C-alpha cells in the first residue's frame, strides 16, 4: 500500500508536467477566490477574516472551486489507468466524457446544496445540539457512501458503464478500510498545507500574503489530483481482487505490486 501511496503523489507530479494546463484549472480558480478574499479585506486580521467568511463573492468562487477540483479528475483517472500514456489520456472518448458529465452534474448539484441549500438541522426541525449531531451524521453517511461508490467514480471516466453505483458497492465490499487509508493519505497532507497557508497568511505583509496564496493555489491543484488518485488506487485494488475490469475492455487494470 505504501508503494501505491507514493505512486499517487508521483503520478500527480508527472501529470502536472505532462498536462500543465489541465493541472492549473483548479489553481486558477483557487487564486481567483483569493483575489476576492483580499479585496474583501479577509487577510487583514482574524476579525476581518471572520467577517468576510460569508462574503457572496468568496462563496461563489468557493462553489466554482469545488467544480474545478472535480474537473481534472477525468483526465487524471485516465492518466493513471493508462500508465501515463498522455495520448490515450487525452484521446476523445465521447462515451467516457458523457458518463463523467453525469457524475459531474450529480456531484455539482450536491455541492451546491451543501453550500447554498438550507441547513439540515432546521430542515428536519432540529436545533442546538441535535442539529449539530445531524450535520455530523450527514458527513459520516456521505463519506461511507463515497467509499462504496469509489469504483463507479473511477469506471465511468474510463468509459465503463457496466460498473454503476450498485455494482460499485459490491466491488468495494471488503475494501472499506483500505479505501479509508488511501483517502486519508491523499487528502490530509495537502489539506493541512492548504489550511496552514490560508490561515498563516492572515495579518502578514501584502507581498507575503500574495506569495502564500499563490503557493496555496498550487497546493490545491495537487490536492485535486491526489484526491482523484485516492479513489483510483482502492478501486483498482478492489476490482483486481475480484477479477473485475475497471476498463470497458476485458484487459483489467493491473493489481498493486
User: What share of residues are in beta strands?
Assistant: under 5%
Shape: globular
Q: Number of helix segments?
A: 13
How many beta-strand segments?
A: 0
Low-pLDDT segments, ≥5 res? 251-257
Mean pLDDT equals: 91
Oligomeric description of these chains:
single chain
The helix-and-strand class reads: mainly alpha
Describe the structure.
- Keywords: Membrane, Transmembrane, Transmembrane helix.
- The chain crosses the membrane at residues 56-76, 97-118, 130-155, 176-195, 207-226.
- This protein is mainly α.
- The chain has helices spanning 2-18, 20-39, 46-52, 56-70, 72-81, 86-90, 94-116, 120-123, 128-148, 150-155, 165-172, 176-200, 206-241.
- It starts with a helix and ends in a 16-residue tail after the last helix.
Can you give me a brief rundown of this structure?
The protein is mainly α. It has 13 helices and no strands.
Topology:
Blueprint: H1 2-18, H2 20-39, H3 46-52, H4 56-70, H5 72-81, H6 86-90, H7 94-116, H8 120-123, H9 128-148, H10 150-155, H11 165-172, H12 176-200, H13 206-241
